[in-house]
Structures are given as C-alpha cells and as structure tokens.
Amino acid sequence: MSVNAAAKQEGPLALICGGGSLPLAVADHVAKRGRRVLLFPIHGAADPADFANRPHQWVHVAQARGFIRTARAANCRDVVLIGSLVRPALWQLRLDLSTLRVLPLLVQGFFGGDNHLLSAVGKAFEKHGFRMVGAHEVAPEVLMPEGTLGRVQPSERDRSDIALGVDYLRAAAPFDVGQAVVVANKHVLAVEAAEGTDAMLARVAEMRVNGRLRAPAGTGVLVKAPKRGQDLRFDMPSIGPKTVDGVARAGLAGIAVVAGSTIIAEPDLLVQAADRAGVFVIGESAGP
Q1: What is the CATH number for 19?
Q2: pLDDT for residue 180 is more than 80
C-alpha cells in the first residue's frame, strides 16, 4: 500500500493549532502524504494572518463543543495539539457543556506542571472518543536528525557543556520544571521555567550586557531535552530560527537537542540563521 493510500485510510486529521510556525508545517507534511487536515487555530494563541488563505475553524480554550461537532461530522478520529500556548488560570476559563463533562480531569491537571496538565487535556479528548497523537507520529519529517546541521561544529569544550546540560535536565525531570538549560564552561547559567526558552535566552543576553557573565562571548550552549516520562504527544521540545537568533544574542556557541525527540520549525531557515551567526546546531543520541 502506498503512503498516500495509507494516509487516506487513516481518515482526516484534526490539528489544533497554537502559536508559531509548527502547526502549519505539520499540516503541510501531512497533506503531502495525502491525508486531509482540518485546522482548528486557538483564539489568543494562533496568528489570524497565518490562516487567512486556509480553511479553518477557530476554537476557544476550554470550549470544546464546536470542535467536537465539526471533527465528528468530518469523521476525524485522530487529533494533534501543537504550537505555543500560554497556560491560562483556572478562573479564566469559560467552560461549555462538553468541557464540563470532563471538568474533574482538567482540575486535577491544573495542579501540576505543564506535562501533567497536557496529559489531562489528552485524557479529556479521549473521553469524547478521539485519539490524541503526536505531531511526530503523523509528520516524522519535523524531527531533528542525529548530527550537526549547518557548517559550524561544536568544540570539545562545547561537548563538555552539552554533557553537563543533559545530566542536569535528567536530574531535574521529576520536578516537571522546564526542558532547557544554558551551560558555559561547566557552569549552569540559566534554567528554563514558566517563561519559556526564548525568554530564558533573553535573560542570558541581559546578564551578558550587564556584565554578570564571566564566560566570554562565543562560549556556552543551550541544551534542550524532553523530561523523563514526558508525554511527547503534547509537549515535545522544539527549536527554530528564532531559537538560533536568541542564542546568538545571548553570545552562546550553539544549540544541542535530542535527536528524534525534538521538533524543528523551518529547518532551512534555521540552518541559514545558524551559519550566518556562526552558531552550531547538533542532534545528540538519546543515550541510555
């Protein structure tokens, strides 16, 4: 059976889109395989301009009725949730009747980290008869390969910083804090928390401007890795051209991620930005 025939046999895919370029990149990869994609951008997260020339239906956080009705009418079983989304406060949610049915699950999810909450959201969709799948399952082309992208290679010092960063993230994984850390000369400079990777890199850049960093420009690595036990259907680490720009502004040497467990947004633009800035981007083996 051909790839296109298999994709059609799987039925339409519902893609719930947060912010950034990843949702549409995934949609395009899936469509090339011959599978129909229904786009559901999230109000307040997705950019309306990105969907101006594409059929779509807007959805609100915690208001699932419209999505459920449309997805079922199109015989969608599989759902992908991808893109950036600011975590709302529980009191900010305006629930409809479909969401109220699974309210206990969502309340439990709010009292924990992002991975805990997103897993609860996935269970809520499954209660309504859908199957939650990861973007990497329907569009494996978006995954980071093993090895270096672009012309710049990491030095031995960089590799030591990468090793420390990976060890730190593994040790911190049970606390469900963040997916990224900045390490320079075997010294942890910054740890990602609720602010996200881009804001963490901006913080490192500000520390450099203020003279609070001892490491000279061109040293230090951004390391990203999924948390141990993380549900990769919802919250796989990702990088893109914006990440490269943030690393360059922070005066770091490069980016290291886990190959096969990291999504790349706009890979061609990422490589161009990395080569232009003299920054390396490497996908490391997951290891044991």
Answers
A1: 3.40.50.20
A2: yes
Same domain, yes or no, for 53 and 98?
yes
How many angstroms separate the CA atoms of 130 and 64, rounded?
Answer: 12
Residues 6+ apart with CB under 8 A from 130: 14, 71, 76, 77, 78, 79
Give the pLDDT confidence of 119-139 residue by residue, as tens digits. Answer: 667 777 788 889 989 999 999
What is the percent of the chain with per-residue pLDDT over 70, rounded to a whole number? 83
- Overall number of domains in the chain: 2
Burial of 54 (0-12, 13-18, 19+ CB in 10 A): exposed
Contact at 8 Å (CB) between 77 and 11? yes
Do the beta carbons of residue 42 and residue 59 sit within 8 Å?
yes
According to DSSP H, which parts of the chain are helical?
3-9, 22-32, 65-73, 97-100, 103-110, 114-127, 135-138, 156-172, 197-209, 241-249, 267-277
The span from the CA of 15 to the CA of 61, in Å, is 14
For 16-59, how does the pLDDT look when each residue is reduced to its tens digit (9 = 90+)? 898 888 899 999 999 999 999 999 998 888 999 999 999 999 98
* Cα-Cα end-to-end distance for the chain: 35
For residues 204 and 261, state if they share a domain.
yes
Residues 258 and 204 in one domain: yes
Residue (of 210, 175, 214, 213) closest to 192 by Cα position: 175
Instruction: List, in sequence order, every residue forming a beta bridge with 238; answer none if it has no partner.
Output: 263
**Same domain (yes/no): 165, 275:** yes
pTM over 0.90: no
CB-based contacts of 89, cutoff 8 Å, min separation 6: none
Domain region containing 47: 3-138
Residues 219-275: tens digit of each pLDDT: 999 999 988 777 778 778 899 999 999 999 999 999 999 999 999 989 999 999 999
